[in-house]
Amino acid sequence: MYSKKISNAVIKRLPRYHRYLGELLENQVTRISSKELGDRMGVTASQIRQDLNNFGGFGQQGYGYKVEYLYNEISQLLGLGKKYNVIVVGAGNLGQALANYLDFEKSGFVIKALFDVNPRLVGLFVRGIEVMDMDNIKVFVKNNNIDIAMLTLPKANASQIAVELVSYGIKGIWNFAPVNLEISDDSVVVENVHLFESLITLAYIIKNEEDPHTDDMYSMEIQ
């Protein structure tokens, strides 16, 4: 067990390492240097070595990294060696899309049910997974050892539902509602995903590539 405090920036890069190493395994690559891995990922070799040294290094000088070994070690660091029981709260288009994404289950995230208040959705099945009434969520969470809730709710409902889920024993919340959830219980992990912010960031980059003088004009205005 690592007692060293790891920065959030390093932790957020671990899934990228996992994904790229998985692709290398699929292409039957057995060994890779930090420079080669960095070139694929768009980061420096130094950054990769610094990141991995937080967990013990895993490489050999002059040899690089054994791809399968590093992939398995990062899988363990990410907690991918166990199964997580998951529910989706909000069975609209986004909730159904999440339930249909097969790679979640391949990585150990097993969606057990969807929940909604809309009577037109309750009773439907998404990839064989039932959409249940919200009135049943408390009993379901407790009886099925649910670890994670994916929230695809309107902003107005998300905070209250999150508080209720925590009281039922949920350990983690993956929040797609357009609000930053703040949970007072330190034992519960919340990951806020802001899709619209990501989209408008993309729009900003496109705009500035089309008009490279935009940043210069802004700099002159604020001087």
Automatic annotation (TrEMBL):
Residues 80-180 form the CoA-binding domain. The keyword rRNA-binding does not apply. Keywords: Cytoplasm, DNA-binding, NAD, Repressor, Transcription, Transcription regulation. GO terms for cellular component: cytoplasm. NAD(+) binds at residues 90-95. Residues 16-55 bind DNA. The keyword Transit peptide does not apply. GO terms for biological process: negative regulation of DNA-templated transcription; response to redox state. One of its GO terms (molecular function) is DNA binding. It holds the Pfam family CoA_binding. It is found in: Cytoplasm. InterPro entries: CoA-bd, NAD(P)-bd_dom_sf, Rex_DNA-bd_C_dom, Tscrpt_rep_Rex, WH-like_DNA-bd_sf, WH_DNA-bd_sf. Modulates transcription in response to changes in cellular NADH/NAD(+) redox state. Homodimer. Belongs to the transcriptional regulatory Rex family. This is Redox-sensing transcriptional repressor Rex.
